[in-house]
Write the structure tokens for this entry.
Amino acid sequence: MRLARDELESIRLILKASDWPQANTLPVRGAEGVDRELYVRLIAPDGRVVLETAGMGRIVAPAQPVPRGIGEAGIASRARLRDGDTYQLLTAPVLAGQNRGFIQIAMNHGDEDRLLALYRTRLLTVLTLALCITAALGYWLARSSMRPIERIGRVAERIGSSNLHERIAVEGLPEELRRVVLAFNTMLDRLGESFARVGQFSDDVAHELRTPVNNLRGQIEVALSRTRSSEDYEQVLGSCLEECGRISRIVSSLLFLARVGGSDALSIGQAVIAREIDAVRDFYEASTGEAGLTIATDAPSDLSWPLDRTLFQQALGNLVSNAIAHGGTATAIEITAQVEGRRLHVTVSDDGDGIGPVDRQRLFDRFYRADRARAGTDHAGLGLSMVKAIVERHGGTVTLTSTVGTGTAVTMAFARLDDDSDA
């Protein structure tokens, strides 16, 4: 439309110095039958056609009336012929000398339309090819990025209880997957350690139960091998009863460990530490008296801490019992309690023979006994394991320090738990 208006202004300049008869000087390019770019028609005020480019009637009929009230800018429209060409039409008033009239300009837009159509076709072709190439490239990239995940999945499917040693290789993995694989391998390390501990625990349980069961069987077989007196049968039954008690204690200890290590809620309450320590000391007062030991306590009277009182007494009692049984030449046991930082430290120490470095590394393992001969049959090696399980259930830790010939000290560090915590 801008080109049509430019042509209109050019024609107006020419017609200002001309009359209608000289209007044939208008710059009209092309000829009939050739691709003409511009068609012009001059119309007098009475509607008479003064000048018309050859072929103009094919685009706009001469009899078509000129609209009234046309402004200087004219009226624009479009016309599409049957052969497919499109023309931009512009009708506007003009002045030729003293005569006023109208001019109709038609500009052929067929080339532009064909060019736009060709552009649209090529653009659609390029976009289609780009879409196909992008889809293929995206599929290839997706498959390439999924290969490490598929490899991880295959390794994860292979791993079972019999091959927990297998790990996922991290070489060549992107950084995001590398972190995931490292975490997965770390989890497998923990699982492997847990399975190893479970296997060792099962072996220890079988070993501990096999001894009293074999004792029971041997005593019963000996008793049944021949007829015996009632006193002999009573002695055998008494020995069998002792072995049954030993089995019962082992089973009870294992059940206790399973309960403490489970997800059941703790019965947390504000425990007065000095009072709990005095209760344990009074309970073991007779045992320490028979062993020639004394128990000293040191705990602030106003010190309270959120604990499961029953489990706390069980852990503290196990430490005192262990000190009595394995104290050796010890003459005194001391129980102290104090708050350090945000933790409650309760320590049970003795001045006995101490524990060697080899035994110190395994004292908290289940069924491990540093001195089996002195421990006797009443101790299954689960006391310190219970202590560790109870303290860890409270979110704390247990540490043991010992010097051969000087004594041993076991410290329970309890984290602070809310009264309604289930830990």
Notes: The mean pLDDT is 78.
